[in-house]
Amino acid sequence: MIIVLKKSATEKDAQHIVEAARAWGLKTNVSRGVERTIIGLIGDERIIHGKPLDMLPGVESVLAVLKPYKLAAAEGRPEGTRIKLAPVKKGGRTVVIGGPEVIVMAGPCSIESREMLLDLAQLVKKSGAHLLRAGAFKPRTSPYSFQGMGNEGLRLLAEAREAVGIHVITEVMDVRDLDAVAAVADVLQVGARNMQNFTLLKAIGKLHKPVMIKRGLANTMEELLMSAEYVMSEGNHEVLLCERGIRTFETMTRNTLDLAAVPVLQRESHLPVIVDPSHGTGHWDLVVPMARAAVAAGADGIMVEIHPKPAEAMSDGSQALLPKTYLKMMKELDRVARVLGRKVTR
Amino acid sequence: MIIVLKKSATEKDAQHIVEAARAWGLKTNVSRGVERTIIGLIGDERIIHGKPLDMLPGVESVLAVLKPYKLAAAEGRPEGTRIKLAPVKKGGRTVVIGGPEVIVMAGPCSIESREMLLDLAQLVKKSGAHLLRAGAFKPRTSPYSFQGMGNEGLRLLAEAREAVGIHVITEVMDVRDLDAVAAVADVLQVGARNMQNFTLLKAIGKLHKPVMIKRGLANTMEELLMSAEYVMSEGNHEVLLCERGIRTFETMTRNTLDLAAVPVLQRESHLPVIVDPSHGTGHWDLVVPMARAAVAAGADGIMVEIHPKPAEAMSDGSQALLPKTYLKMMKELDRVARVLGRKVTR
Amino acid sequence: MIIVLKKSATEKDAQHIVEAARAWGLKTNVSRGVERTIIGLIGDERIIHGKPLDMLPGVESVLAVLKPYKLAAAEGRPEGTRIKLAPVKKGGRTVVIGGPEVIVMAGPCSIESREMLLDLAQLVKKSGAHLLRAGAFKPRTSPYSFQGMGNEGLRLLAEAREAVGIHVITEVMDVRDLDAVAAVADVLQVGARNMQNFTLLKAIGKLHKPVMIKRGLANTMEELLMSAEYVMSEGNHEVLLCERGIRTFETMTRNTLDLAAVPVLQRESHLPVIVDPSHGTGHWDLVVPMARAAVAAGADGIMVEIHPKPAEAMSDGSQALLPKTYLKMMKELDRVARVLGRKVTR
Amino acid sequence: MIIVLKKSATEKDAQHIVEAARAWGLKTNVSRGVERTIIGLIGDERIIHGKPLDMLPGVESVLAVLKPYKLAAAEGRPEGTRIKLAPVKKGGRTVVIGGPEVIVMAGPCSIESREMLLDLAQLVKKSGAHLLRAGAFKPRTSPYSFQGMGNEGLRLLAEAREAVGIHVITEVMDVRDLDAVAAVADVLQVGARNMQNFTLLKAIGKLHKPVMIKRGLANTMEELLMSAEYVMSEGNHEVLLCERGIRTFETMTRNTLDLAAVPVLQRESHLPVIVDPSHGTGHWDLVVPMARAAVAAGADGIMVEIHPKPAEAMSDGSQALLPKTYLKMMKELDRVARVLGRKVTR
């Protein structure tokens, strides 16, 4: 931590800070310049994170030297994190997230019926994708919109998982549903609106279950890493980060997909980075180019929504791909991945 | 709902939409213009809110005519909502939120100790303010920061409420804590990060207890009203709306306090509108001018943070007012309120 | 400037930076901490502003200690800048901007006709306001919209100025029109879209004529101060700063009026700060509350638009006040100003 | 245009609008619904673009049916615009922008010296790229930063163009420099800060010279298309659109590169779309992944900055690629382009 003093600060002000630092167990380095005196605090500054040092007399500004995340930081595990999902059934596929394969998670936005879910699970499995995505609990802006099938949806998801032999990812919104969701899901999903639901993050941190945290609409990458840190600091180190668009002034897309988050998060952290171009754009015709772009940017995986009849979807139909568009996209993604020495399908 | 067809749309496309509308119980009005055919859907369009009408063949765009909120909308209660808090003790003050008095909610960010809380409660009471604010459960970006005193904090808050005879507002973060918090609080607070925690909103909707919902950092005013609608649609109509700053590119302030939200929300809704200039700016020296500005803009209330020693505060010390600054502000706020025919203190 | 080295940086990397600093005429202070080595550069760091120090080997990040603006910074003139406009006619009013009086600039968005301009000039003068605002050159998003009356408009403005005896402010968009505009205007206006038209700023810097620079829609306060610095570094120190709303995700208002800019800019700079609630909100019914709020926040002045028949205005009619609304507002502004020990009208 | 009346609107209000529409030469279609009366205006609504229809009595809101741009709209030229640059010298390469080849524009941010420019021009030419980019006039936030070599830079650029035989693109900031810049440049560049410098756009519209308009930091895609419309409405139809990042709350990147702009602009318009990942990210290590992503998203071209010694660059060194990194990127871009049936190099 670097403390810059005001031009008008006194020797007493500087002395006060040096003593405060000593009381926190930190050493100091005082540098008296032409225009400003600067005090460097030496030691693990995270112990004073959040302290209002700018309120001390004579202080002009406070500059952080270290990143506020530690467990999620790249330097702790430079080789990167790989998350393994054991086969659903004996002889089935082991999925490795964060390795050379680019992971695809695909399926309907919401679970709408048993038949539809089983059909799409089959399609997703056959396409070479790695996980089935499907929501039982749906966060909706309006209380009058379809809120998901809830526990009945979870039951159907468990059935599809078994019947088809495919790993599943689904969202948990309520800490009271956590055990029920964790009993079915291979990967838990924390939605963008819950990225800073710290209660939920701490509870997930106590499980042995991978979790994908979606970046909130107004959250910085640093805050996304701090949310991962919440889970990790409780003991659960299997965290996936997901970029799904941030909110900006642009209205031609539902959100602004921030693809630079892929290389930035991969530089800052050892955790795998997934991109959701469906929510990131909100329009089916933008999903395919943005999925290709995500893979080209180096994403470790992609999450997309599919629906057999988008115009009749109970949620987010505008961003759902028709099965045939999805299958064509899968081939393109594989070809792009191979430019980077990776692959999507076998 | 207005459906604009593409230039290339066929008569069959139009017919298809007319029939779909009929199936939803809506009438239609088809207008064939020079450049576009337009179909108006007549009836309560809210029943098709969220349907992906833009996925129907031939559709170029879909324009909503009605607002998606109904219970929160101004036209349902043009006289405005007044929320009464019965006296804490016999002979005490009845607080009316949404009436001619501009409400002040003041106190420490976090409950830090019994002594500090009681002292500030006394100060707030004497200053003429209406509610004591103080957090027992604190949402913090970092897992390493102080997370609040929790249930022990709630107990202290109940004690201060009784001892001093002042109404209290405090945040509930976890649906599992709801009963415990509601047992102490006169007004529940839903924080900005939980504005779209729909699980929590629904549970609060089932209580008979006023709730103040803070606008999320990336949430539109329409979404804030939809979150109020979640609570109201469950039966609880005592909702306060709180503007506390949105996230923008500007870094000289913690958030960008969107004061125009005051007149906009008052025009759109019948619910009282409170402003929090402490979180809205993040710096104590900006709190006073912004509090005055909020009252001048017509806010129904103000929430501010106070601390006897800001540099030692366990959370958000940079934005806390010293008691003497707070007391001076109270007088200014009262004078500004009187320009609008309102008042703060008696 | 503070340079933070990577954990992996070598002694040679540090040495390289120390030598580079010496070559730029700066001294250094090297502090070797537990986790990072930090090098402070001592001297006027502005001489290396914009240098890509983060590209030097071993550098993790670079932290600025001094603000990049110097002439506009508060510390250079702590008593504040007052800009005097000599009377238009003998015996007329001397207007002082930045003093105890809160300045009002009012008038039509565009000059539309001689009669309308003269009528409004009379109204503005009688109301006690200080400057007539009216645009001859209009920056419009669409090439098909009314682009202003141009030189003919300037001529009418000069006539109104003389006839009514009121100071005028008007926008200059094109450096080629600068002399013509400066011949009429008492204060030049640089519009939000031209805030970083550095060519125009430099040319204005060579004149002896006050200029009001409007903050761009995506510009930080620091950048606004840097634009003032452009003008001042050429010799013209009579600069007014104007907050007129920034662009955010909110759509219920045209822009998000960032009123906290008033106290922030007044703390950072000695230049007067004006607020334009007409462009800042885009709707006439929000202009009055936001004008009151601006004065309560401590603004040195207000700029508002008036039109006798807003529905027929050739530009920005939705945000124009009717004369009677404007006159009522003037009385309220004066009463709010007096709470702060200032006044609007005599 | 659709006009939605308030619930409280009278028959007289509706009649007034119908008559106003007739006066503008538009027909009307009045639809009386359960909750609202709606009036559709039939005809070319662009003639009333910008009129404050919401100020008419009884009007609740106004919804646009047609896009405000016409010449730039896709439907006018569904086959897309191809811009041909005749060979610099006899026997040289004809460059076609908007065709199957993905165009690469590369070079230094600023022209710094004759030698450096010639060396980089050779490198760019050999790499298979199509245009040399290099700035003579530089828009800088600070008046104390290097402002470009100006006319001497233009002279060097003309020399490099001739000597190496490569097309050039360079920025024009000031309308007074337009002829001089147009005499050298094969493609003019309008920078992000000048996207709404309507004076400059109109002047360029009168030339026969391709122009690339960069999207402003706070500008919507619709506004970018309106700026293209300014140029086109004056007669110059050779316009390239450039996405180069918008301003958001994220600070880990210089700007947020909005790659979804590529498919959106290609759907809305017939003009070629270029992406600048150097300014779009601000860090050299993000440029390569984002350049690949842009090509994967379907961009018609890429603009990138190169510097032999980034740490010594006079502007934007942090985002400059070393020559060897650039050459490696070119190969990757070509491979990604081929997945889409396009190519970069021969």
The multimeric state of the shown protein is homotetramer
Order of helices and strands of chain A, N to C?
EHEEEEEEHEHEHEHEHEHEHHEH
User: How many discrete structural domains of chain A?
Assistant: 2
Interface with most residues: C-D, 52 and 50 residues
**Any idea what the CATH superfamily of the largest domain in chain A is called?**
Aldolase class I
Round the Cα radius of gyration of chain A to an integer and report it: 23 Å
* Low-confidence region ranges of chain A: none
Which topology of the largest domain in chain A does CATH recognise?
TIM Barrel
The main pleated sheet of chain A reads as: 8 strands, parallel, barrel
Task: Write out key terms for the chains shown.
homotetramer; 346 residues; alpha/beta; TIM Barrel; 2 domains; 4-stranded antiparallel β-sheet; 14 strands
What can be said about this structure in brief?
4 copies of one chain form a homotetramer. In chain A, strand 8, helix 3 and strand 9 form a beta-alpha-beta unit.
Protein model, in words:
- Helix content of chain A is 32%, strand content 18%.
- Chain A has helices at residues 11-23, 114-126, 151-164, 178-184, 198-205, 221-233, 261-268, 277-281, 284-297, 323-339, and strands at residues 2-5, 27-32, 37-42, 59-63, 83-85, 95-97, 103-107, 131-133, 167-171, 187-190, 211-214, 239-243, 273-275, 301-305.
- In chain A, helix 2 runs parallel beside helix 3 (151-164), helix 5 (198-205) crosses helix 6 (221-233) and helix 9 packs parallel to helix 10.
- Chain A has 2 domains: 2-63, Alpha-Beta Plaits (2-Layer Sandwich), CATH 3.30.70; 74-339, Aldolase class I (TIM Barrel, Alpha-Beta Barrel).
- Chain A has an 8-stranded parallel beta barrel with strand order 7-8-9-10-11-12-13-14, surrounded by 6 helices.
- Chain A has 10 helices and 14 strands.
- With 346 residues, chain A is of the alpha/beta class.
- In chain A, strand 12 (239-243), helix 7 (261-268) and strand 13 form a beta-alpha-beta unit.
